[in-house]
Write a structure and sequence with these properties.
membrane; transmembrane helix; about 15% strand; Rhopdopsin 7-helix transmembrane proteins; 3 domains; TMEM181_GOLD
Length: about 500
């Protein structure tokens, strides 16, 4: 049993309801996949071909026109044609110049000048070599870009190759609008669900929430920022801050999800009182926090470096990139093994907690679907990248949004539970009000008794004053009588003395 009285809808899910929830969740996801498949292409690609001749110095000029900020960024790569019957893998030194112009007749501004880079050319027999990326401009500031690439003949046997193809790739403006519209829809839906959740539970103490409901509250807040309501700033802002926000929002949400999965599956084999922070949460938070820091540093350094150096290529130019990536992969493998072990132990021990079985199977079913689809999308993104297919973008965002919405439905408190807790709160409030009224009455009685005592004191004071006045008056009258008696005595003595003198 949960330590809280806040029961969840998932606790009363029958098998039919479980199947219905899983089917509805799957329909949501596959609908987003279909919409992604028919969406506009992510990239617009333009190609220009040139010839390689064995001259003493080779220079290739190319230009790209009619770009704007809606194109987001620009990538320039070169493919060299191998005309031999054997494989080739050889380093070559390239010298690159890059210029930008606001208009056809505008002034030419130097962006990169005489920068030397060494790239490795790899190609099979009679085929195009692997693409060599030279430029990745992450903010379109000019409408025209001009490139001048020189190949030092001492570092490349040009007779091995027959031609070169320039590829200019930039975001399709239709896809950018597609991204903004669906991103806005996801933001609105996530805010609506968050407000509904907080409104319904606003009068309920956080202490009453179950373990699952606390996590859903955190994930709903993170989902709003994962959908990135600040995406339009990326189009109009050139600084590092939009890139920083984008990386931060995505990674925080993803690692919260990874922590949530590990904590949830591991929690089913522990009683609530056994889930202490030090022994239960801290080890999980530690391993994922270290992995978060590694990934955040790698991605952010790469993206920020691109803003300052459009020739930057992490695989070749960033020292220590591969060791850091290997450490990150090792940590992720440790996490996967831990997660698999937690799922295995949860299945073995869930029979001891019969009341948690519906919650466990509800969570397990939709989470396994989510993890499998996420792995598929990551694989597709690795092979083709998000920039080649809108399916990856829309399906990934739709997957996480509908997953959190489904969790919110299953872990939402039942109506009876809300009414019971609110009734208990109202009863407690009524008891408190009765106690307050009782205290007020007692205070009033004490006050009235004090007033009566004060009235009695006032009356006594007045009586005392009257008595004092009477006493004073009596004393005065006595004094007057005594003075009169003394005067009479004096007069009698005088008269006696006069009589005696007359006799003499």
């Amino acid at each position: 049993m949960h330590p809280s009285e806040m029961k969840m809808r998932a606790e009363s899910f029958t098998k039919k309801k479980q199947v219905f929830v899983v089917v509805a969740f799957s329909v949501y996801i596959f609908t987003s996949i279909i919409v992604g498949l028919i969406g506009p292409s992510v990239l617009t690609t333009r190609e220009a071909e040139d010839n390689l001749t064995p001259t003493s110095h080779i220079g290739l000029w190319q230009s790209i026109y009619n770009l704007d900020r809606m194109n987001l960024d620009l990538m320039v790569s070169v493919e060299i044609q191998n005309n031999k019957e054997y494989q080739i893998e050889t380093p070559a030194k390239f010298i690159l110049d890059l210029y930008g112009k606001s208009s056809e007749n505008g002034d030419k501004k130097e962006i990169v000048l005489n920068d030397v880079h060494t790239r490795t050319i790899k190609c099979d027999s009679h085929s195009k070599c692997d693409s060599i990326y030279f430029i990745h401009e992450t903010f379109i500031e000019y409408s025209i870009y001009q490139f001048f690439i020189q190949i030092e003949p001492d570092t490349l046997e040009t007779e091995l190759f027959s031609g070169v193809t320039f590829k200019f790739e930039f975001y399709n403006t239709h896809f950018v609008m597609f991204r903004m519209i669906f991103g806005f829809v996801y933001v609105i839906f996530s805010i609506f669900v968050l407000l509904f959740w907080t409104y319904k539970t606003s009068k309920i103490s956080w202490k009453v929430f179950t373990f699952e409901q606390k996590w859903v509250t955190v994930l709903l807040f993170a989902l709003v920022f994962f959908n990135n309501p600040f995406f339009p700033i990326t189009i109009i802002g050139r600084g590092w801050f939009p890139e920083f926000l984008d990386v931060l929002f995505i990674l925080v949400f993803v690692f919260l999800m990874l922590l949530f999965w590990l904590v949830m599956f591991d929690s089913f084999r522990f009683r609530p009182e056994e889930r202490t922070f030090t022994k239960f949460l801290l080890p999980k938070i530690s391993i994922l926090f270290v992995q978060f820091v590694f990934n955040f540093a790698l991605i952010l350094i790469q993206r920020l470096h691109l803003k300052n150096d459009p020739e930057y290529e992490e695989a070749d130019d960033l020292k220590g990139y591969k060791p850091l990536a290997i450490i990150s992969i090792i940590l992720f493998v440790v996490y996967l093994l831990w997660l698999i072990y937690s799922i295995y132990r949860a299945f073995r021990e869930i029979h001891q907690f019969t009341n948690w079985k519906p919650v466990f199977y509800f969570f397990f079913n939709i989470t396994i679907i989510d993890i499998i689809l996420f792995a598929i999308f990551v694989g597709v993104g690795t092979l083709h990248s998000e920039k080649s297919n809108p399916l990856v973008f829309l399906a990934t965002y739709g997957l996480f949004n509908f997953y959190i919405y489904t969790l919110a439905i299953g872990f939402f408190p039942t109506t009876e539970s809300i009414d019971m807790i609110r009734g208990a709160a109202r009863q407690q409030l009524g008891d408190d009000e009765d106690e307050i009224d009782k205290n007020e009455k007692q205070n009033q009685q004490i006050t009235s008794s004090d007033d009566n005592l004060r009235g009695d004191d006032i009356e006594m004071d007045q009586v005392n004053k009257v008595n004092q006045k009477e006493l004073n008056q009596s004393e005065k009258s006595e004094k007057l009588d005594q003075s009169e008696k003394s005067e009479k005595l004096d007069q009698s003595e005088k008269s006696e003395k006069l009589d005696q003198s007359d006799d003499n």
